[in-house]
UniProtKB/TrEMBL annotation:
Name of protein: ROK family protein
InterPro entries attached to this UniProt entry: ATPase_NBD (IPR043129), ROK (IPR000600), WH-like_DNA-bd_sf (IPR036388), WH_DNA-bd_sf (IPR036390)
UniProt region (Disordered), positions on chain: 1-35
Listed Pfam families: HTH_24, ROK
Organism superkingdom: Bacteria
Composition bias, Basic and acidic residues: 1-19
Residues annotated as transmembrane: none
SUPFAM superfamilies (alphabetical): Actin-like ATPase domain, Winged helix' DNA-binding domain
Organism this protein belongs to: Caulobacter sp. (strain K31)
The family this protein is said to belong to: Belongs to the ROK (NagC/XylR) family.
Length: 418
């Protein structure tokens, strides 16, 4: 049901909770029954996902894909049409007899809000069920405080709704993506009062703007989920996502399912130790991150505090960036080899707010070094993520859809792969 007020936090638990998980565990396989209502909801999610991925598509094709009977598909598609989530898109041309009707997603049928909070910016997007960003606003701001986030989001969301043409959009909820330990990790120029984020109620912060469900997620995890649903993950559902932001994060997706780990802290690639005579850094994110790149440029006498400034550097600045890419690629090789050996993903995707040309240069430099690695059973190729710059915000906007409209991993595997 859309519009129910709640706050759902998918991020890593606090340190205290991490030590003793409040989730009940069972030995062996996890079993879960399903009543008729749950089965009906699941089937509707499967059909909606199949239409989203395969449109224009007929009811006959939906029955073949889903394994449901034609009458069941007819009933489900009628409900989806009545709810305004799908549209009839004309009959199949050239077919004998009564041509079948094609179905497609109604891009205005349901939307959601995605918010990405980080140490250097706030981004808000309005997303439709096809993954198209229908409205976007972003503010470059160093170490925004909760009051800054609330003020910006309130203003921009109201502007988005006011600018919408026609009836007010049907919103399924608000998703929020932000780094774990936002108020605790020390980065250059971090103000003393930034630890206020450690006790901030982020869910309430956003719920006070609109009476909608709020879903919280780690920024790298959100970006990985967005890549799974709207990017390369539709073709390669086992991958590792590397998010280059003010820090460095990662997300692991295994056969279409995001893997969180025992304490919800999987993918923390930024905390891996590094040793190199070319840097005093002791962790990977002290080199491979926007804040580290800015500090590298600052040490060379060039001040940069926004990603777009990286595309208009002098020759000296470009040389410094090239040095940073070379060192970053060198330090990423061993983590990527380990990921390939332990996890065996189909690909490693790099996304984040680095300009596209710099991501491409970093990807090329890493792949060049990986090509020289020998005696490894399998190495995943590194590619630029499809969602890239707004990945966390897009992934955040996906969270309400996942909770209310889209199917589970098993159904995704059935409807999302050839």
């Amino acid at each position: 049901m859309l519009g129910k007020a709640l706050v759902e936090d998918h991020r890593a638990p606090s340190l205290e909770t991490s030590r003793k998980s409040n989730r009940k565990r069972t030995s062996g396989a996890s079993l879960s029954g399903a009543n008729l209502e749950r089965v009906g909801d699941h089937n509707q999610r499967v059909i909606l996902q199949a239409i989203r991925l395969g449109a224009p598509i007929t009811r006959v094709a939906l029955a073949k894909i889903s394994g449901l009977t034609p009458p069941a598909v007819a009933n489900i598609t009628k409900r989806l049409l009545d709810d305004g989530l799908i549209l009839e898109a004309g009959r199949v041309q050239g077919a004998r007899g009564q041509p079948a009707m094609n179905l497609t997603i109604n891009p205005d049928g349901c939307l959601s809000i995605g918010v990405n909070i980080d140490r250097d910016h706030i981004t808000v997007v309005m997303l439709d069920l096809l993954g198209a960003v229908r409205a976007r606003a972003s503010q470059e701001i160093e170490f925004p405080l909760p009051a800054d986030v609330a003020r910006f989001c309130k203003t921009q969301i109201r502007k988005m709704l006011a600018a919408w043409k026609g009836d007010p959009p049907r919103l399924s909820g608000i998703g929020v993506a932000l780094p774990d330990d936002l108020g605790r990790v020390d980065l250059p120029h971090r103000p003393g009062n930034y630890d206020v984020w450690s006790s901030a109620d982020v869910g309430k912060l956003l719920a006070d703007i609109l009476p909608l469900p709020v879903f919280l997620e780690n920024d790298a995890a959100a970006a990985a989920l967005g890549e799974l649903q709207f990017g390369h993950g539709l073709r390669k559902p086992s991958f590792f996502y590397v998010l280059v932001s003010s820090g460095l994060g990662g997300g692991m997706v295994v056969e279409g399912d995001y893997f969180r780990g025992a304490q919800g802290r999987s993918g923390e690639i930024g905390f891996l130790p590094v040793r190199s005579p070319k840097t005093k850094a002791r962790s990977l994110q002290e080199v491979v991150s926007l804040s580290a790149l800015y500090a590298h440029l600052e040490a060379g006498g060039i001040t940069v505090d926004r990603p777009d400034q990286l595309t208009a550097l002098t020759a000296k600045g470009q040389a410094l960036v090239a040095d940073w890419i070379a060192l970053s690629a060198k330090l990423l090789v061993q983590p990527f080899v380990a990921i390939s050996c332990l996890f065996n993903p189909e690909a490693i995707y790099i996304g984040g707010r680095l300009p596209t040309n710099l991501i491409d240069s970093l990807v090329a430099a890493v792949n060049d070094r990986l090509a020289r690695v020998e005696d490894v059973p399998a190495l995943a190729r590194v590619e630029r993520a499809a969602t890239s710059a707004d990945g966390p915000a897009v992934g955040a906007a996906l969270l309400p859809f996942m909770a209310q409209l889209l199917p589970s991993r098993a159904a995704l595997m059935k409807t999302g792969r050839a």
